[in-house]
Amino acid sequence: MKQKIGIIILLLLQGFLFEFVTAKPARAETVLYVYVDENGNYHFSPYRQDGRYRRVQLWKNKAFVRDFNAGKYDSFIALMGSKYRIDPALIKAVIRAESDWNQAAVSNAGAMGLMQLMPGTAKKMDVENPFDPAQNIEAGARYLRLMLDTFNGDVILALAAYNAGPNAVKKYNGIPPYEETRTYVQRVLKYYREYLK
Predict the structure, then answer these.
(1) Distance, CA of 94 to CA of 111 (rounded, Å)
(2) CB–CB of 167/181 below 8 Å?
(3) Of 20, 23, 56, 89, which alpha carbon lies 20 to 30 A from 110's?
């Protein structure tokens, strides 16, 4: 009798595991509301607390947030490249290094969206919704242009400043001695070469 019960339990477990393994991931979405106060601080809430909060839609499953068909942004990136006099391939390389095309990415430091805008940068660039791809890409391209102008068109220093901030680059008169920044610059340049092909 015990052996028969054991076989039944085993068959039930096998059926459960089959269903679990073969189940398709649900396109579960989550809604978030964001409000930027007068100091540029971002406040997030799962519901709209008042009229200051704006709705942001995110996918729980990153596969639906990260856009592996990044080519759909090509026209807009080309437009921003022309507007801010930046090679579109460089903008794409920054996006890939910053967020890997995840429009809902948020770093531990609070950087947001495709080009990982810090709250202060987003405020300075008049960004209302940092998770909106168009707003994020334009602000990121504009900020990258600012870094290029600050460092006389030196792409390497501009990238270092995009990652570590312009004051750090000025302080060290070059790429700051931060492993993260050095790795970041190398990664962007690698992607840049790939997008140029």
Answers:
(1) 14
(2) no
(3) 89
pLDDT (tens digit, 9 = 90+) per residue, 132-190?
999 999 999 999 999 999 999 999 999 999 999 999 999 999 999 999 999 999 999 99
Domain parsing of the chain, residue ranges: 61-196
Q: Where are the alpha helices (DSSP H) in the chain?
A: 2-22, 74-84, 88-99, 119-124, 133-150, 155-164, 166-172, 179-196
Provide the token pair at 112.
Answer: 């947001």
* CATH class of the 61-196 domain in this structure: mainly alpha
Report the amino acid identity of residue 4.
Answer: K
CA-closest candidate to residue 144, choices 75, 195, 93: 93
- What is the C-alpha separation between 175 and 157, in angstroms, rounded? 6
pTM recorded for the entire structure: 0.68
Instruction: Spot the catalytic one: 19, 29, 98, 138.
Output: 98
CA angle 152-158-162, nearest 5°? 145
